[in-house]
């Protein structure tokens, strides 16, 4: 009897110690996302499906609402990794920062905004924008730069041919469009689809389809963090890749049901519609490798918008090693 009790006691102690060791071995990563968006569906899949946990990572997500705030959080050690537009790394580099931000994994590969008109436009033509009031995005941000790029590709000067308004905070743009006299606005999903459903606007074009492949939102970390946490970054990238493949292989409805906890105010049907729209135009990257041609397209878009501070080489701000390694596993 004593032997049995001793065995049970010893087994309990061993179980507790093993549990403690597993908890202590898990690495915590502070992740800052630039906004909460269906556009980032693979990230929420990775979190909900436990892909990060499978890699021994405890990823703590925070939404920092804006590129400038996200980069401030990253550079001040408020976050270890940032999910934000790749253009922000160029801005930091151009300021001669002592600790630059390096892009290491791509999540989305097209623009994620749509042109929404207040009135129905069954025969929409880009020339319809001339002489109208267009509610744009923040100056210097990817949505606005892509918007201007697409307009110029369609022979429209955004600063001469229309009344371009860029003085409204990102979070307030949808409500400002409804209450103002603006005829057009640039919106992300699910807001664009919600506006259609509620009769507040009508989707007439996709900026993602018009602008081509671009590293729209990527994961980046400071150079010092990258040097000191290579193992964690490789595990993080592996989990992201696994989620990207899962999103590629599953239906929009399955994805919607998985990520619904992150969008409690949006029903599954609306999420499904938005995800389907993004899947159809290839917005979700199917692997995390940020390619050089996409980087060059980003710089072309920035230059066209007059926002490229300097021509930064791919090798200076992109480290594709982690992404390429996980493809070999």
TrEMBL record:
Which SUPFAM superfamilies does its entry note?
Periplasmic binding protein-like II (SSF53850)
Is the Cytoplasm keyword given for this protein? no
Signal peptide range in chain numbering: 1-22
Q: Which UniProt keywords apply?
A: Signal
Listed under GO cellular component are: periplasmic space
Q: Is the Signal keyword given for this protein?
A: yes
Q: Which Pfam families match?
A: NMT1
Domain spans labelled SsuA/THI5-like: 41-252
Task: Classify the main location.
Answer: periplasm
Q: Which PROSITE patterns match?
A: PROKAR_LIPOPROTEIN
As for subcellular location, the record says: Periplasm
Its family remark reads:
Belongs to the bacterial solute-binding protein SsuA/TauA family.
Record-given protein name: SsuA/THI5-like domain-containing protein
Organism of this sequence: Virgibacillus pantothenticus
Q: What is the lineage of its organism?
A: Bacteria, Bacillati, Bacillota, Bacilli, Bacillales
């Amino acid at each position: 009897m004593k032997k049995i009790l001793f065995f049970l006691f010893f087994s309990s102690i061993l179980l507790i110690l093993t549990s403690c060791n597993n908890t202590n071995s898990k690495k915590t990563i502070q992740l800052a996302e630039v906004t909460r968006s269906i556009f980032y569906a693979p990230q929420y899949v990775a979190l909900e499906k436990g892909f990060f946990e499978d890699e021994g990572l405890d990823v703590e997500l925070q939404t920092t609402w804006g590129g400038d705030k996200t980069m401030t959080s990253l550079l001040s050690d408020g976050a270890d990794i940032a999910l934000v537009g790749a253009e922000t790394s160029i801005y930091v580099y151009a300021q001669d920062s002592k600790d630059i931000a390096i892009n290491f994994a791509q999540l989305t590969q097209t623009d994620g905004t749509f042109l929404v008109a207040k009135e129905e436009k069954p025969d929409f033509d880009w020339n319809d924008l001339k002489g109208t009031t267009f509610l744009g995005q923040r100056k210097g941000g990817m949505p606005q730069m892509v918007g201007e790029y697409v307009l110029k590709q369609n022979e429209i000067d955004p600063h001469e041919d229309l009344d371009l308004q860029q003085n409204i905070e990102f979070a307030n743009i949808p409500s400002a469009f409804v209450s103002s006299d603006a005829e057009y606005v640039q919106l992300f999903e699910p807001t664009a689809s919600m506006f259609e459903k509620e009769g507040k606007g009508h989707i007439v074009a996709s900026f993602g389809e018009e602008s081509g492949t671009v590293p729209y939102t990527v994961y980046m970390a400071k150079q010092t963090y990258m040097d000191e946490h290579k193992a964690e970054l490789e595990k993080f990238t592996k989990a992201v890749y696994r989620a990207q493949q899962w999103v590629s292989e599953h239906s929009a409805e399955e994805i919607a049901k998985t990520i619904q906890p992150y969008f409690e105010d949006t029903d599954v049907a609306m999420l499904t519609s938005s995800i389907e729209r993004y899947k159809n135009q290839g917005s979700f990257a199917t692997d995390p490798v940020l390619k050089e041609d996409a980087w060059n397209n980003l710089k072309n878009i920035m230059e066209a918008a007059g926002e490229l501070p300097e021509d930064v080489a791919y090798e200076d701000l992109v480290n594709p090693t982690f992404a390429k390694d996980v493809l070999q596993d």
